[in-house]
Structure formats: structure tokens, C-alpha cells
Amino acid sequence: MESNIRDIVIIGGGTAGWMAAGALAKNAAGRRITLVESEEIGTVGVGESTIPPIILFNQLLGIDEDEFVRETNATFKLGIEFVDWRRLGHKYFHNFGMLGADLHTGVPFLHYWMRSLRAGGDPDQLRFSSETEAARRGKFGRVQRTPPGAQPNMHYAFQFDASTYAAYLRRYSERRGVVRKEGKVVNVRQNAETGFIEGVDMQDGSFVRGDFFIDCSGFRGIVIEQVYKAGFEDWSHWLPNDRAAAVPAERMAEPSPFTVARAREAGWQWRIPLQHRTGNGYVFSSSHISDDEVVSTLLGSLEGKALADPKVLRFKAGRRRKSWVKNCLALGLSSGFLEPLESTSIHLVQAGITKFLDFFPHRKCDPILIERYNEEMAFQYETIRDFIIAHYKVTEREDTEFWRYCKHMSIPDSLSDKLTLFRERSEVKPYPGDLFGDISWFAILYGQGLTPEGYHPLADAMSDDDLQLRLAGIRKAIMERVEALPAHADFIQRCCAAQPVTTAA
Amino acid sequence: MTDRVGTVAVVGRDAPLWLAAAALQRAFGVTGVRVQAVELPSWLGSVDCYSTLPSLASMHRLLGIDEAKILEAASGVPVVAQRFSNWAKGAPPYLVAYDDDPSGSGDLPFAQYWLKGHKEGLRAGIEDFSLGCACARLGRVPLPPATANAELSASYGYNLDASIYAEALKQLAARRGVETISARIADVKVEGERISSIELEGGATVKADLFVDASGAERVLMMRLPGAQFHSWPDRFPCDRVLTASAAKFRSLPAFAQISAIRGGWIGIHPLRDRTTISAVYSSDTISDQAMVAQLAVLARMPVSGDAVVSDLRPGLLDRPWVGNCVAIGEAAAAVDPLAAVGLHLAQGCISHLVTLFPATAGQMPESMAYNDTIRAFASNIADFTQAHYLLNRRFDDPFWDQAREAPATPTLRSKIDLFSARGAVSLRDNETFSEQSWTWLFLGAGIEPEGFDPRIDLVADRPLIEKVQQRLRTVAELAKRMPSVDQFVGGIDQLEAAGVT
Asked: Which tens digits make up the pLDDT trace of A440-475?
């Protein structure tokens, strides 16, 4: 038997399915890739907000960024503004990118910043974030990359229309030979001896055979769960939100280069500005608030006219115990769900795909390889989960039942260790492979109201005059960088507007 | 010639000129000596500030100056200590205050008790046992004790608006009968080692039996005398530039001047009543004037306003400050890095030695030998104290400071450091300016950990030692608490009374 995988079947379209199709079409050339999907089954996804690693995914696919932005009605994103999370009326920003610069002492910048805070310095650490200072001014631009510590770079991600993203990736994939097959899967055939999947029967009677299957069928997990019973680890006691009401609204005149996450009575509400409209949604816990209340809050708070009726989506926080079983890999919702608070949904798909490319198996799918993959994906999910839980746990809010529950709930040990370290020394010491680094943790925990008592002891070794000069130099470089940037809307207009630009004659 | 000195011409500028003229007039005017001041154009700008040592108060008393009045006029603020920050990486700042050494009680210096206690685990730092340091930390001014035999006392210097202070002294000198000519020097007529006369621009001639050079670094008279040679100390004092600028006043006045080491030098923050003077003293090899101006506000951590003024600094000493019939005072005699606020004190010290050694006759003036020996020792001790700060720095990995640490030091400074390192003791020499305690605060603050202590301290049993230490801690804390704040002090007598200080 041929040892190489020849036929890959992706079950389900949507963002996850087409991301997998695109990545495989580009990087697993020579294999036959089939994607089966049904137009009858709707896809989830209103406005998608992403994080900077998506740029790596675009690079992996060789996508032209301006084209991508145009085709998906995208805007640029420099971070997330959190409103009312620490307490009502309070705001903070989770910035992308660096804080300050590398001072080449082995001690990260934020400890020096903490030292200056302790000495009575300005409490706004984001004066040392070029992304934040640009976001505050509604500015955006790409900058020439420089070595760390030279000139501040601008780290960014995108806010785009998920349905056009899937369509864009479909065109990309089909141009590279991916075959799309319309229809519903009605049966999954398993080899009686090995338990491997041999193919799927379609509603129209046809049979699609394959050597490897990627289950992108959503929450149902028609292979990973319905065939393999991989199991689901339920995290809803830590993350009680289980529904979202979503509605698009008219576009913002000046789309903000950041996503807004506003804490609500029993959950939170997103605002994701796109070029042609604004995505809005209220993620909530159905045991704390009714759908009707949520929809009325949502509609009552829109900044523009609603462009459709609100849709209510249901989900449950948690993770498929195994993402990969035999010759089937689950991606996207079929492998787990974490609420989109930190815009990690697409990232988890991307992480699953890139890791799969890294682990790309032979036909027999070595169990050791599969186990390693599953461990690493479990780690990804768990660390992101902890990061999201921290937003709810570390808060001063106790004004509603929902927030009282969150503030007083028990948390995973892995998170309480991080919080303990953070209190002592301003850092959580993420493991290699943690998606969120210390700068993100600092932004969130400090923003949520946890001011550390100490910092890295070696940050004291620098003399005060050196520190002041360096802080001033970095701040100056950041502001020079930011001042030179165009307005976000102007930048889009100039290089990647979705509609052809008409100028008055 | 056996005539007495009948005329003295003091040639110079700014406070040293007027201090010298007024002091000589005050001491010898009544005996018929005529004191004439030749005032050269001032070097002071509106940003300048005199930072002085406590000794200035005795000069004021000698001259009959109403101190409260002159302080008020010259925006004066008491300086209880100097706070040295960043002289060692990662170490907290330390204070050097002006505690008065007890007079001959026969007891061992308190530092010895502290040292033994410290070696046995005493937690309180030496600054807690210094009235000056404690007051400086609390922002209070250690007023002189009411009784002469008080257990503890500390003194304080002042920051003064330099132009106003110099002008006030000028008026005082005039009131005392000093004649003043404002002019530039056209020529100095020299015969052998003596000055016979000075010709001024405009044609006037000044003749005198004794000339005093108070012209600062210009040494306008001394440099005309073949016997006077200036030896500079570029190895010992690496800074050759002084930049002075202004910042807003402190809302609440601190009781200390801040001296912060920086790359290539140091920055001084000197509070005044109406503004704050910021000075940067640095090496032009390490940092340009332009770069220093650009970074001054960041380093001082306060917005700097107005124009910055830059001048040269060349520390060194005249090998003969008195040559023939010409006596150099102050910076003309010895120039020292301004770190320890010794500028006016140098002038004042020279003036009092000149008064003490005022020539009996206008002839050979053998007093010059004694004056020269004394001023050399006096200036050398001050230079030692100043250099100790540089020498003991612990800012590693900065070439400027590495060099300062490895710079040559005088045998006298070496032996002071060696003795202190061995047993925490300071041997004062003749003509010392700084008290044993000031040296002690400096050495301990700069990080010297004495290996041992005075063996006699072992004669003190543990219990009395502990009691003595606790007693001193309490006394310092209680005394400091009773002292007025700097704001009350500058607010005047009414406020002092309101604060319950009498």
C-alpha cells in the first residue's frame, strides 16, 4: 500500500474548511483535495476580529494583503478596547505588539516600566505602545520593519467579514485545484478492521473516498464525535456564556482600527468595524439573561441602523478531548469552542492547520504523532481559556449576578499560578508556545485592576538616569512613528478600499 | 619698607569679591586701611545659584548680615543634606548631612556603636542616627539647639539666587565704606613678584600695598605673576563643563539638594523659593553641550525652562596662592568640582585665613608662606572630599565612571579610605572643612563596609550598647520631628511660631 496520503477530504465549508483547503492546496501540492459542503447548512460568523499571527497564515498562503483586505471588506486592527470590564465607566486597551523596546539586559521592558511606576511614574504603560498610541488617534499604517529596539514596529491584524473571507479562500483554493462537492454527508464509512475512515456517502448517492479527513462540520463533529466519540471537555463553569446575538449595522464613518469589547450585564458586546458595515454581537449567559433582553440591549446600543434581524447563536465553551483520531482531524468548532473575546477563533483554526502541516502524517498516521498533536492542541486551548477566564475573574464588578458569579468562581490551577506570579513580579512567565505573552497578560491583568506588587528584581540594576533617558528615547521614537502615520480610513482608501474609489471630477 | 599696609585693592567679581572686600573693610577699616574694590564684569546669569555650606552663616554673623533678610531677598532655601542618587547601580540614594561633631566628650564616635550593632544584626541604617539625615528625609530644618551643650546638632547650608546675593553683598560692602570702581583691567604692572599698580581701561590707575585676586577662574592678577602656577587635576576630576538652567519651583520644598550621577557626569537639583536651579556637570569628552541640553529635562525629571548657560570648569590649585603682595582667594586660588557645594566656602576660607594672616607690614610679607601652606591643605582636603564621591562610585560598565573609580587619589584620601575600610574611623587633618560625621555618612553611603571597628567598643557591654543605640535613635527621631519644615522655615518667624518652634 502506498504510504503517502493521496486524497484529503474536508467535510464542511465555512471559515475553518476553506482555511484548511487553502493551506493544503498551497502546501500539500500533488494531493487531491476535496471539500464537501452544503449550501443548506448555514455558517456561523458575522464580523471576525483576528490577531497578528494571521499575517503568518496569509504569508503561508502567499496571499497579497491588499487584495485580501479589499476582498473581505477588512479594516486593520491594533488591539481591543475593553470597556466597563474592571468597573463601570473604566476603559483599557489590549495592545498588539511590543511594549517599549528591548533594552538588551535580558529583563523585559515592562519591568523597567513597573519600576518607573513604583517611583511615581505615569500609570499608563501604553504610552510605550506604538499600536495603542496610533489606535487612540485613529491612525494606521504599515511601517518598515526594523530590528527590535530600533524603531517601534506596528503589529496589526484584521477585522473582516467572515463569509466573504470563506468565499475568498474558496476562490483561492479552487484556483489551486481544490474540488468542491455540493451536498450533505449522510453516512461515514469506517474500515472494520482499522477503524480508519474510508469515505463518506453523500445525499445524492455518490461516495467520496479519502486517505485523510478533516472534520470542519461544526459543533456536531460528524466524524470526530459522531463516529469516534472523542468526547467534550465542558468549561462552561468557568466560561458561562453560551449564546450570542449578532447583528450587522451601518458602517462607521471612520472605522476604528480596533475592536471594542464592552462588558454587559450578563456577558459582553463586540463592535467590529468593517469597510462596508459594523459587526455587533452580545455574547451572554442564557442562565443569567433572556434572549429578548439581550436583543433589545443590542439593538438599543447600535451606533448605526441595523442591517438585518439579529440572529441568536448557541454554543458551549469547551474542547474536544481529542482533535485528531486515526485519520481524522477536527478543525474549528468541531474541535472546541472559546468565546471570541480575544479574537482567537480563527487563530485556533490556523494553529490547528499549521500544526497539522508540521505534523503531516503518512497514510498510517503514527499514534505517537497523533498523541503529540493532541497534547499540543490541548495546551493551546487551555492557555487561551485561562487568558479569557482572567478577564472575568479579575474584576471589581459585582453589580449583577453574572459578575458576582465570575468574580467569585474557582479558577483552574494553571491560571491561579499565573496570577500569583503576576502579583509578585508583573509577569506570568508563559510557557513556550503560549499564544499570549507577558505584554498581553500585563495589559489584561493590569487593565482589569490587578497592579503587581513587585517586578523582576534585576530591573533595579540599571541606573535611574539610564532608565529615564531610555524611557524618554523610546517614547520619543514611538510618537515620531505614530505622528507619521495616516488616518486609518485614509490608509484603507488609498491602498485597499473594497469599492472602486470614485473621485469628483 | 616697614610701613603698614595702608591700601588693599580687591579685584574680582560677584560674591567672592564683595565678601572679601566687606570682610577686610570690617576687620581693618577701623585701623585705617583703605579697601578698594575693582569690580570686573559679572559672570552671573539669571539662572545661577550659589549652593553653600553651613559655614556661610558664620561669615554672615561676622559681617553683621541679617540672615533672614538676605535669605528672603535671595530666594534662599536651607540645604540640610545632599542626596546622592545613582552613584551605584541598583543602590538606593544616600544622604550626606552636616552633623556637628560633638566637642571633646571623650566618648567614641557614635558610628562605632552603630558599626558593632550593625555587624550583630542591627537593622536601622546609619542615616536614622544622623539628625541631619533624619531632618533631610522629613523635609525639616535642624535649627541650632537652644543650649550650648546639646547632645546633638546639625547645620545646614543655603541655596541662594546668585545675582541677588552678590548684589546684596555689594551694597553691604559699599555701606561699610568699601570704594568701588567698575572697570576692566588694561594692564598689570609687575616688579619682580610684586604688583605695583593696575591700569584700568579708561586710563585710571589703581595702586595698593596689597592686592587680592577674587576674579575666579580668570585669575586676572595671579596669571600676570611669574611665581604663580596653576596645576589642574584633569585625572582626578573628569568634568570640564557646567551647564546651568532653571526649572519651576517645588510645590513643597525639599530639605536637600539632589546630586544624581549620570553617564558622563552628574546633575544637581538645587531648590530655590521661586525656582529650581538645575546644573549639569560633565565631561565634554563624553557628552556634547547640545546633547546635555537635549536630555537635561529627562534626567532632572522636571521641565526645564529658560536659557541654559554653559561654562568651563577646570579644577586645580595655584601652587602659591599668595605671591609677593597679591593674594588669591576662592576659585582664583583653588577650583574644585562643585559637587559638594564648596564654591563660596573656598572663598570664605581664604578670606578668613587672609584676615588671620593680614600682613603686618607692606614689605616682604612672610605671611604668604603660612597662607600658602594653609590654603593648600584646606583646598586639598576639600578636593579629597569631593573626589571621594567619584572614586567610590559603583556605576560599573560606564567608561567615564570606570575611569573615575580608577583615577589617582592623593595619599591623604587613600589613607582616609583605608582607615575607614579597616575600622569605620575618620582621621581629620588640619584645615578640614567637613566633619567626621559628614565623612562617615559619605563613606558608608558610598558603600564602604568597614571590616572591623574600634577595639575599645568591645569594652562596652551588650546592654549599654543596645541602650545607647536605642537612645540615639529615639533622640534623633524626636528632635527631627520637632524641627520646622523647610516651607515653615522660609515662611519666616511667624510660621515658625505657629508651628510651635521657638
From this structure: 999 999 999 999 999 999 999 888 888 999 999 999
**What is the pLDDT confidence band of residue B464, given thresholds at 50, 70 and 90?**
very high
Determine the Cα–Cα distance for residues A89 and A107; give it in Å rounded to an integer.
34
Residue of A112, A465, A476 to mutate, testing the B interface (most B Cβ within 10 Å of its Cβ): A465
Q: Left (φ > 0), alpha (ψ -120 to 50) or beta: where does B259 sit? A: beta
Nearest chain A residue to B265, by CA: A465
- A461 neighbourhood in chain B, CB within 8 Å: 89-90
* Catalytic annotation present for A407: no
Starting at the edge strand that comes first in sequence, how are the strands of the sheet with B185-191 ordered? B185-191, B194-200, B205-207
pLDDT in tens, B115-147: 999 999 999 999 999 999 999 999 999 998 877
Distance from CA of B292 to the nearest CA of A (A): 11
Task: Note whether A118 contacts B: Cβ–Cβ < 8 A.
Answer: no
* CB atoms B89 and A472 under 8 Å: no
8 A C-beta contact, residue B112 and residue B457: yes
Strands B34-39 and B179-182, by their bridges, are parallel
Residue of B nearest to A461 (CA): B90
Q: Touching check for A463 and chain B: CB below 8 Å?
A: yes
Are residues B295 and A463, on separate chains, in Cβ contact within 8 Å?
Answer: no
* Domains identified in chain B and CATH numbers: 7-68+160-232+315-381 (3.50.50.60)
Query: Which residues partner with A133 through β-bridges?
Result: none
User: How close does chain A come to B262, measured CA to CA in Å?
Assistant: 6
CA A129, A134, A138, A143: dihedral to nearest 10 degrees?
-130
Which residues of chain B lie closer than 8 angstroms to A463, CB-CB? 86, 89-90, 261, 395
User: In chain A, what are the domains?
Assistant: 7-74+160-235+317-381 (3.50.50.60), 243-314 (no CATH)
β-strands A243-250, A311-314 pairing: antiparallel
Chain A, nearest residue to B292 by Cα: A469
Residue of B nearest to A471 (CA): B298
CA A81 to chain centre: 15
Of A98, A28, A30, A27, which Cα lies nearest the Cα of A57?
A27
- Number of CB atoms found within 10 A of residue B301's CB: 18
Residue A504, judged by CB atoms within 10 A of its CB (0-12, 13-18, 19+), counts as exposed
- Give chain A's radius of gyration (CA, Å): 23
Q: Which of A321, A466, A346 is nearest to A74 (CA)?
A: A346
Q: CA–CA separation, A94 vs A444, rounded Å?
A: 6
Contact B298 A464 (CB under 8 A): no
Can you tell me the ipTM of this complex? 0.74
- Record: contact B90-A469, CB cut-off 8 A: no
Chain B residues interacting with chain A (CB cutoff of 8 angstroms): 85-86, 89-90, 260-263, 267, 295, 298-299, 301, 395
Whole-structure pTM value: 0.84
Count of CB atoms situated within 10 Å of the CB of A171: 12
DSSP helix/strand/coil, A371: helix
Nearest Cα to B209, choosing from B24, B23, B18, B344? B24
